[in-house]
């Protein structure tokens, strides 16, 4: 098993000194745990990416090649390599793929895990990927090229209600996958949803940012979609061969998605696409 590098040890010690100088005693342990966990996780990202030859190991996007530029963000690289990332959504993703949308819209595409993964699983679909982070856009384009789907993945900047409405117009059967850090209530207005009768939607809800987001969106989709609420759940590290020779602590750290609170998603199935 690989041990934390000298770089990580120095970073932890430096962080400990900075934090201890300005933090109340009761907060110190939690802050130091978070810092050291994230530093070790950054190393795990690189180690697992290398061991897997940058290929997703399981799940609906098994075999997809990830970007080697893991350093642009933590980006839950380790869970994505393992194929455990947002495992709660795997059944919904498989159902969405079977329904064969002609267009996929991914808002908050980050490095392209969903945009490129869905392009691979839907070889006849056009994918439009939005992200406000220019670095994320660049990595998403690189990942699309590495997986030979760049001709079908259009990467652009941040999404607005007006842009989303224009994308939704006259495109036939669609799938919208959304993770926009609390912007879902603004983007998914009642008026927009009324015109989405041919569009399935998988949306991450950020109730810790906007309280009641999940219930509000369930109400908005109730008339036009069959709505399933998906709750975050635990992972089993024993099912991943890449983790077999690591300690229990490192296994759980590799699987961690570093969420501030428990998350729920909505999978909304358009009645018009049955």
How many domains make up the coordinates?
2
Quaternary structure classification:
single chain
Q: What is the spatial order of strands in the main beta sheet?
A: 3-2-1-4-5-7-6
In helices, the fraction of residues equals 40-55%
Q: Which structural class do you get from the secondary structure elements?
A: alpha/beta
Q: Ends: how far apart?
A: 50 Å
How many alpha or pi helices? 11
Fourth CATH level, the homologous superfamily of the largest domain: Vaccinia Virus protein VP39
Uncertain stretches = none
Shape: globular
Rg result: 20 Å
Total strands: 7
- Tell me the fraction of residues in β-strands, as a range: 5-15%
The overall average pLDDT, rounded, is 89
The CATH topology of the largest domain corresponds to: Rossmann fold
Secondary-structure element string: HHHHEHEHEHEHHEHEHE
Largest sheet: 7 strands, mixed
Tell me the CATH architecture of the largest domain. Answer: 3-Layer(aba) Sandwich
Q: What features would you describe in this structure?
A:
- This protein has 274 residues and is α/β, with parallel strands linked by helices.
- The protein folds into 2 domains: 6-51; 86-273, Vaccinia Virus protein VP39 (Rossmann fold, 3-Layer(aba) Sandwich), CATH 3.40.50.
- Helices cover 42% and strands 15% of the residues.
- The protein has 11 helices and 7 strands.
- It has helices at 6-22, 25-51, 77-82, 90-98, 113-121, 134-146, 161-168, 184-187, 190-194, 213-221, 248-255, and strands spanning 103-107, 126-130, 153-156, 174-178, 199-205, 225-231, 264-270.
- The protein has a 7-stranded mixed beta sheet with strand order 3-2-1-4-5-7-6, with helices on both faces.
- Helix 1 (6-22) packs antiparallel against helix 2 (25-51).
- The longest helix is centred in the first third of the chain and has 27 residues, at 25-51.
- The radius of gyration is 20 Å and the shape is globular.
- The N and C termini lie far apart (50 Å).
- The mean pLDDT is 89.
């Amino acid at each position: 098993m690989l041990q934390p590098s000298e770089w990580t040890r120095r970073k932890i010690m430096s962080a400990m000194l900075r934090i201890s100088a300005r933090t109340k005693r009761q907060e110190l342990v939690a802050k130091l745990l978070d810092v050291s966990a994230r530093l070790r996780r950054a190393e795990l990202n690189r180690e697992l990416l290398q061991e897997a030859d940058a290929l997703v190991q399981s799940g609906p996007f098994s075999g997809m090649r990830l970007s080697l530029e893991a350093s642009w963000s933590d980006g839950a690289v380790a869970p994505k390599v393992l194929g455990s990332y947002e495992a709660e959504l795997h059944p919904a993703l498989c159902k969405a793929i079977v329904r064969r949308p002609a267009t996929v819209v991914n808002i908050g595409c980050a490095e392209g895990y969903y945009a490129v993964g869905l392009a691979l699983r839907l070889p006849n679909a056009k994918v439009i990927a939005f992200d406000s982070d220019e670095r994320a856009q660049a990595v998403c384009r690189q990942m699309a090229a590495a997986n030979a789907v760049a001709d079908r993945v259009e990467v652009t900047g941040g999404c607005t209600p007006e842009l989303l409405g224009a994308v939704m117009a006259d495109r036939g059967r669609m799938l919208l996958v959304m993770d926009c850090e609390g912007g879902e209530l603004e983007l998914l207005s009642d008026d927009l949803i009324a015109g989405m009768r041919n569009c399935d939607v998988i949306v991450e809800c950020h109730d810790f940012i906007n309280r009641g987001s999940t219930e509000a969106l369930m109400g908005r989709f109730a008339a036009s979609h069959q709505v399933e609420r998906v709750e975050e759940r635990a992972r089993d590290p024993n099912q991943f061969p890449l983790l077999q020779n690591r300690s229990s602590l490192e296994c759980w750290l590799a699987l961690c998605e570093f969420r501030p609170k428990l998350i729920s998603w909505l999978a909304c199935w358009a009645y018009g696409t049955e």
